[in-house]
TrEMBL record:
Residues 7-191 form the UmuC domain. GO terms for molecular function: damaged DNA binding; DNA-directed DNA polymerase activity; magnesium ion binding. Its main location: cytoplasm. This is DNA polymerase IV.
Length: 453
DNA sequence: TCTGGGGTCCTAGGACCC
DNA sequence: TCTGGGGTCCTAGGACCC
């Protein structure tokens, strides 16, 4: 625990809505709602004028319209938000090299790394006041709320206390005086589910939490969560401000205004999303081994299915093919409201592409091949790896899209017009054999067959 | 016609390995 | 005719955050 209030948290007030009001004077002083404007959209940000009508973040746009019909409903201009955010983050980095952005509109700044003469309250308060003035300058008039404290937790709580356009400093040693009367949900990581569990245990405020032993908390909410809850409940927070965080996954998802029932359309949408994921991976110089799809059904039940390759990929065709294959195993009767594709298990290096997928990288969303999905399983060791090609005497050549130990799943792209039933073959089925030998490193790899391009 | 999109982290079970 | 123990990887689901 620091003895000085050297952690600063800055939060731009009603950020997206404020940028819109800045750029469009006719919106100033009026309710502005930024978010999804479709039938299933939700509110990202409501201006303070709109909040007076009860419009809140994460509320459905439908409800927001009902509460505040005269508001301006905007879908958002992310380039403007990003460039405005960049200006603020640059300003923060000029103040201290140790800046941790949490999102476009929020960041921690470690003033202990700022090279200040001291970290007394007056000094850090002055820095915060100057920052707030400079934020207004570089953003064309946006306001920020700032909190200062001895930890991330306290700084963040502080910045929330006097919104908008406020500054709150929590003097070292007074943390628990501030926290005790507050509801437990002030603690990061305590959402609706944890709040309910704690409520049943008679814990409502931080003062209540202070009296519960760590063992008891672990029993109530689990090991990791229980430990951190016990620490934060006593205002103990040693989490450092970290400027560089590694990306762990890249994903794209979409909710559709009407539920999808056409599997071919779903496959085409997944393929398009896979291209988008691929582009973003490549733009960041990343590739990943695990491809995951997310499917939300009409009744909001949400399923994830994933498969892991033996080496990382950033290839759109590969990601798309795996995604479509994963969808094949799911029952989507009743309709699908959301589809998504993600890649995780990221590495910032890309193994040589043994199968030449990079040569042709364009499964057209509109011309998806019909496919027959065949599962085979056996207790003998799997000799095929994802990405390999296999050949079947009558079904032709297929592509291994997933494998487990003792199980191999092969997707055959055939001339059939409709997907056939799922069939099982033993893995030692004599007709199922590697189509071509595994190339050795450095060997010349033949081109992918036409249909894989 | 309630309920976005982009993430992170944790848990739990099964397979596998030594 | 009983039956390990620890560690890692993978998958699926869930909670949470902005």
């Amino acid at each position: 625990m620091r003895q000085v209030a050297s952690v600063l948290h800055l939060d731009l007030d009603a950020f997206f809505a404020a940028v819109e009001q800045r750029d469009k004077p006719s919106l100033r002083g009026k309710p502005v709602v930024v978010g999804g404007v479709g039938g299933r959209g939700v509110v990202s940000t409501a201006s303070y004028e709109a909040r007076k009508y009860g419009v809140r973040s994460a509320m459905s746009t439908r409800e927001a319209r009902a509460r505040c019909p005269h508001a301006a409903f905007l879908s958002g201009r992310f380039h403007a938000y990003r460039s405005t955010s960049e200006a603020v983050m640059t300003l923060l980095r000029e103040t201290s090299p140790l800046v941790e952005p949490l999102s476009l509109d929020e960041a921690f700044v470690d003033l202990a790394a700022a090279g200040l003469p001291d970290l007394e309250i007056d000094t850090v308060t002055e820095v915060a006041e100057r920052l707030r003035r400079q934020v207004a300058e570089v953003t064309g008039g946006l306001t920020a709320s700032v909190g200062l404290g001895t930890s991330k937790f306290i700084a963040k709580v502080a910045s929330d206390l006097d919104k908008p356009d406020g500054l709150v400093v929590v003097p070292p040693g007074t943390e628990m005086d501030l926290l005790r009367p507050m509801h437990v949900s002030v603690i990061p990581g305590v959402g609706p589910a944890t709040t309910e569990r704690l409520r049943r245990a008679g814990v409502h405020t931080v003062a209540d939490l202070e009296t519960v032993s760590e063992d008891e908390l672990v029993r109530i909410v689990g090991a990791a969560h229980g430990h951190s809850l016990h620490e934060l409940g006593h205002a103990r927070d040693d989490r450092p401000v970290v400027s560089e965080r590694e990306t762990k996954s890249v994903s794209v998802e979409g909710t559709y205004d009407t539920d999808l029932t056409d599997r071919k359309l779903m496959a085409a949408l997944l393929t398009r999303q896979a291209r988008s994921v691929s582009e973003r991976l490549r733009a960041s110089g990343l590739a990943g081994r695990t491809v995951t799809i997310k499917v939300r059904l009409h009744d909001f039940t949400t399923m994830n299915r994933s498969t892991t390759l033996s080496s990382p990929t950033d290839v759109a065709a590969t990601i798309g093919r795996l995604a479509v294959g994963l969808l094949a195993d799911l029952d989507t009767t009743g309709g699908v409201r959301l589809l998504g594709v993600g890649v995780s298990g990221l590495a910032d290096w890309i193994q040589e592409d043994l199968f030449g997928d990079n040569v042709g990288d364009a499964d057209e969303a509109t011309s998806l091949p019909d496919a027959d999905v065949v599962s085979t399983s056996s207790t003998i060791p799997v000799t095929w790896a994802p990405g390999m090609d296999v050949e079947h005497a009558t079904m032709g050549r297929g592509w291994v899209w997933g494998s487990g130990r003792g199980v191999v799943t092969v997707r055959f792209e055939t001339a059939q017009t409709t997907p056939g039933p799922v069939r099982s073959y033993p893995i030692d089925e004599p007709e199922l054999k590697p189509w071509r030998p595994e190339p050795t490193t450095g060997a010349t790899v033949p081109d992918m067959p036409e249909r894989h391009r």
